Amino acid sequence: MPKYFSNEQQWLGNAIPSPAGDEALGGRKRTYRATINLDAPKLSQTTSGAGVLTTDTVSLCVIPPMSKFVRGWVTTSVSLGTSTIAIGTAALPVKYKPAAVQTVTDTPTAFGGAIQMSQPPLNISEELLLTVGVANLPTTAG
Are strands 57-63 and 3-5 parallel, antiparallel or unpaired? Predict the structure, then answer.
């Protein structure tokens, strides 16, 4: 099964960058943005796929060491129908967002929160992945 990349992560390939600096101490807040073209998800900077299928993953971002995930939002321009999406890591796909349908459009839906805030900073980089379940993601923007 292919691993797709968000538009912002398409340059990543298999090499995970390791940014310099302490990203958690001093109260800094980092924002990572990930957008996905449902009709042509990125496989690399120059190659797109035909659609995101059940059990496929999409690389959303890489959180550097000494950072903490606090909260995220999912906003879609089209209902994802019966598809479920989970957000986590390769080892724990539901670490930050349990698998659920996303049928509300143009409305940010928060995930994460108290459990993540109580966790210590990461020791190593962590790649956040969106994992698709139950049904393929739709291939049109509405």
Answer: parallel
Alpha helix segments (H runs only) across the chain: 114-117
Core vs surface per residue 87-115: b (16+ CB within 10 A) or e: bbbeeebebbbebbebeeeeeeeebbeee
Please say whether the beta carbons of 4 and 47 come within 8 A. Answer: no
The pTM of this model reads 0.80
* 3-state secondary structure (DSSP) of residue 39: coil
**Strand, helix or coil for residue 112:** strand
pLDDT score at 17: 55
> Which parts of the chain register pLDDT below 70?
8-27, 141-142
What number of other Cβ atoms are within 10 A of residue 135's Cβ? 14
